[in-house]
What does this fold into?
Amino acid sequence: MQHCFWQRIFQQTFKLVTVIFIATLVWITQSEGAYAYDNPELLPDNPTPVVDLAKTLNSVQENNLVQELEKFEADTGWKLRVLTQYDRTPGRAVINFWGLDDRSILFVSDARGGNILSFSVGDAVYELLPRTFWIELQTRFGNLYFVREEGEDQAVLTAVRTVENCLSQGGCNVVPGLPREQWILTLISSVIGGVICGFAAQPRKEGQVFAWQWALIFSPLWGILFVAFGIGPVVTRTNDWLPVVRNVSGFLIGVLVAYLSPIFNQSPGAENN
It folds into this structure.
């Protein structure tokens, strides 16, 4: 028994030491790699707002983007810079190269991760574009599905132009535009909210037509699903009324189906009796 006990202790200790060793090795390797690829010599000699080390953009796209960013900076004072990289990166050298400050936004495209987009945002930018905006921008245009369908170049260009439009109009709390996948989620949320409201409103007393008290009690639940998750994301991202009409219709259908479900479930024998 004692032999088995000490054997288990030895095995657990060996596993723990192995895990710690592997984790330390990975950390050291990543740290050394980051320093090894931090090379300011990768930056061009001539000033340019776009450094395309990964060759994500073709020559026409790059030239157009350079002119676009230079004009945008001259017109608005906001400094937008784009860096694409793959196996090597200039690292923090871009700060001095571009003179990044509180009114600067650095777009970084790196295909080595699950999401190719990342951002370095100046403090003054957050007054117009909050942190949640950048999270949504990254998840919408940098995810693997968007990149697979549209390409890495469109992921970068679309993100840049979305930011330009938002800064030009005085800021955005959310990323404009309503993707089909996101609208479907809002529609599902609206329908579920309607179902909950319809079940809550079913009459529970003889002669009662609509149990508004119960509907009111459950209003925080179906209200959040319908208003906050169903209508809110739509009206804040698009001026198109069609998705709103569809979500309202889905909510009302959910209410009607849930409210009338006792009638549908009532057996013919019960009606005859």
Remarks:
- The first helix runs from residue 2 to 36.
- The chain has eleven helices and four strands.
